[in-house]
Amino acid sequence: MTAIHLDLQNSEDVRDVIHQAVAALSAGKIIALPTETVYGLAVSALVPEAVERLLAIKGRDPDRPIAFAIQSLDAAIDYVPDMSAVARRFARRCWPGPVTLVLDATHPDSVINRLDPAVRAACVPHGTIGLRVPAHDKTLQIMQLCAGPILLTSANLSGQPEATTAQQVMESVGDKIDLILDDGPCRIGQASSVVRVQGSDFKLLREGIVDEATLQRLSGFIALVVCTGNTCRSPMGEALLRGQIAESLGCQPADLEKKGLNIMSAGIAASPGSPPAPQAHAIMQEMGLDISQHVSQPITGRLAQYADVILTMTSGHRQALVSHWPTLESRTFTIRCDGGDISDPIGSPVEVYRKCANQINEQLAHWVRNFDFSQFHDK
Questions:
Q1: CA nearest 237: which of 331, 376, 359?
Q2: CA dihedral of residues 178, 184, 190, 196 (deg, nearest 10)
Q3: Are 256 and 245 spatial neighbours (Cβ–Cβ below 8 Å)?
Q4: What residues have CB less than 8 Å from 352, skipping those under 6 apart?
Q5: Which residues in 112-121 are b (16+ Cβ under 10 Å) and which e?
Q6: Which residue in 184, 246, 252, 285 has the most C-beta neighbors within 10 A?
Q7: With 0-12 CB in 10 A as exposed, 13-18 as middle and 19+ as buried, what is 223?
Q8: What are φ and ψ of residue 372, in 5° steps?
Q9: Strands 31-33 and 179-182
Q10: Mean pLDDT of the chain
């Protein structure tokens, strides 16, 4: 038997190729899929016989589990309902992308418990599960159309080099699998980084393109303060929040970043590169804080996705963000705990800015009391 070869790049109807792949997986076939890292062998986790056949083809040590290819952080929570804050940060900041997260999968509500025991033995032999969201649009489309979860492992025999082209897949396992989807050379051409996360700690099990230093940065806490133009309220909020958090941790504001705490600000209608309003600068100086180096920036999808919490000056700001990025709803709040607004002091005398800063400072105290900074105390 030789695998059927389907060329995605030269297909007249890519949708038909995608549907053929979905049908093959549903029928218990083994198919090779392109990802941004290396080609992978995929099977449906709902077909135990396909999983058993995949293990036999790979010649893989039973103690080395096969990872799940999933679509998003929301899907990951179905497998690991009690995902830690650090695991969620990696998921938000690295997916889709070349990072496989290894997480505890012992929660009684995990969907893993609904799978056949033989499949669980193949993918959760030690109570942990590997999860990955490939950054490849066609492979993601296939996953979205499949009725159940997909297992994905590199398209090579154990101990052999990973395949980064369909031709390499054909040479390695082409006589053992059913279908190869060819989308040319993989963009990265290097296996994903594998990261074990337990609570607030993580360990790099296999270094791919994402190294440990990058993961350390990605594991940190990010608070984002948002107003309209990012020259008055949010720069003051950023400085005040940084000061309160530093005080709660017994350190200097300048030390927060080294501890993994990043406090930022942005505006929903900001022009990039503007300095803070002179009145805001003056009031922060009165309060022992320096915003002279601040430059305005508009909020972007990347900033929004990375943030652990977003604090807005008005309910209108919050609504605008959530309307544009619905996934932000659970992480976006007005600074005022009652949901009210903090008025824009732009163009007002310095006394109005002082009143605004005091109001922001008072409201931020509530948030600092409720943030969990336990993982950062000893850093």
A1: 359
A2: -50
A3: yes
A4: 279, 345
A5: beebeeebbe
A6: 246
A7: buried
A8: -100, 105
A9: parallel
A10: 95
**What's the rounded Cα separation, in Å, for the pair 237 and 311?**
9
Structure-derived torsion over alpha carbons of residues 347, 344, 232, 279, reported in degrees to the nearest 10: 40
What string of H, E and C letters represents the secondary structure of 37-56?
A: CCCEEEEECCCHHHHHHHHH
One-letter amino acid at 263 equals: I
Cα–Cα dist 81/345, whole Å: 43
**Cα–Cα distances in Å, from 378 out to 157, 258, 260, 375?**
44, 11, 11, 7
Integer angstrom CA distances of residue 61 from 132, 290, 326, 354: 20, 57, 42, 65
Confidence of residue 115 (pLDDT cuts 50, 70, 90): very high
Tell how strand 201-206 and strand 193-198 pair up: antiparallel
Q: How far is CA 368 from CA 233, 260, 315, 363, 372, in A?
A: 18, 16, 20, 9, 8
Residue ranges in 209-349 assigned as alpha helix (H): 212-218, 233-249, 256-259, 278-286, 301-306, 315-324
Alpha-carbon distance of 176 to 157, in angstroms, equals 11
Alpha helices by DSSP H, 5-134: 14-26, 48-58, 73-79, 85-94, 117-123
The pair of structure tokens assigned to 299 is: 């909020």
CB 110 within 8 A of CB 149: no
pLDDT in tens, 155-202: 999 889 999 999 999 999 999 999 999 999 999 999 999 999 999 999
The one-character DSSP state at 298 is: B
Ranges of beta strands (E only) in the chain are: 4-7, 31-33, 40-44, 67-69, 99-104, 128-132, 150-154, 179-182, 193-198, 201-206, 221-227, 261-267, 309-312, 332-334
pTM for the whole thing?
0.91
